[in-house]
Structure formats: C-alpha cells, structure tokens
Amino acid sequence: MPLGTINHIGLSVTDLDRSERFYDPLMAFMGYSRMPATPGQRKWKKRGVGIFLIYEARPESRTKVHDRYAPGLHHLCFDAETREEVDRLHRVMVAAGARILDPPAEYAYTPGYYAVFFADPDGLKLELCHAPAAYLGVPG
Question: Under a CB-based contact definition with an 8 Å cutoff, are residues 115 and 128 in contact?
C-alpha cells in the first residue's frame, strides 16, 4: 500500500454482539468481507482498502460515554462514488434501526458534497459522503 494510507481502523464498543449486528450490514454495503472472529474482536476487510475492527471495551470502561468533542475520534467518514449510494445506505441503516443524525442532504463543505450521518450503538458518529469536488486536482 502507498505510504500514508490507512491500514486499519479499530473501534472499542460496549457490547460486541450488538455492535456486530450493527456493523455487519454497514460493512457488507461498503464491500467489506467478514474475517474469522476472535475472542473480544470482530474484523472486516476490503482488498486494497484495509481492515475495520471492533473490540470489546474493558469492563471498567463500558459505562463511559463517548464524547466526540473531547480529544479522540470525532467521526469516521466513508466515501461513496454516487449520491445514490448515500441514499441506499440511508435506507439500509434505517432498516437496521440505526439512529440517523442527519438524513442525506447536500452540505456546503465543498461543491456537490452529499452525505448521511448516523450513530453506531455506542454513539460514535459515522458518515457516508459523495464529495466529487473534494478530489478535483488530487492525484489518484
């Protein structure tokens, strides 16, 4: 992989089984495949992209609430090739019972930026965006 690309992302979750049920349809939608489960951890991999992991939080930390405005992860955004993919994921997440933070809409971040924002079972903010103008002039 090219220098600087992300190899994997790992998130800690309070309930591994509940989060697995949430992330399974999300990661399948994104084209990730399940990897064999290991104790305290679940993994999905997409060739040429990387690995997404969820870890069971330590028992003493399970009652803590994530604050995206404290130091640490604010949110995680995945790319979409089209606005239709954003709309489709919105429907998948609604059907899965996800908490939608902001439904699909155009945002003023860059011209044509179209996104949906939703939360995982622990309140981590996730996003799928189609941002064609963000990549103009960026070498592929």
Answer: yes
What residues pair up with 51 in beta bridges, in sequence order?
A: 8, 45
**Pairing between strand 33-34 and 50-56?**
unpaired
Which one, of 133, 128, 140, 86, lies nearest residue 109 by Cα?
A: 133
Q: What's the whole-number mean pLDDT along residues 20-49?
A: 95
Residue 80 CB contacts under 8 Å (≥ 6 apart), including other chains: 86, 89, 114, 128, 129, 130
CATH superfamily of 73-140: 2,3-Dihydroxybiphenyl 1,2-Dioxygenase, domain 1 (3.10.180.10)
For the chain, domain boundaries: 1-58, 73-140
Task: Give me the sheet containing 41-46, strands edge to edge.
Answer: 8-13, 50-56, 41-46, 33-34
% of the chain exceeding 90 in pLDDT? 74
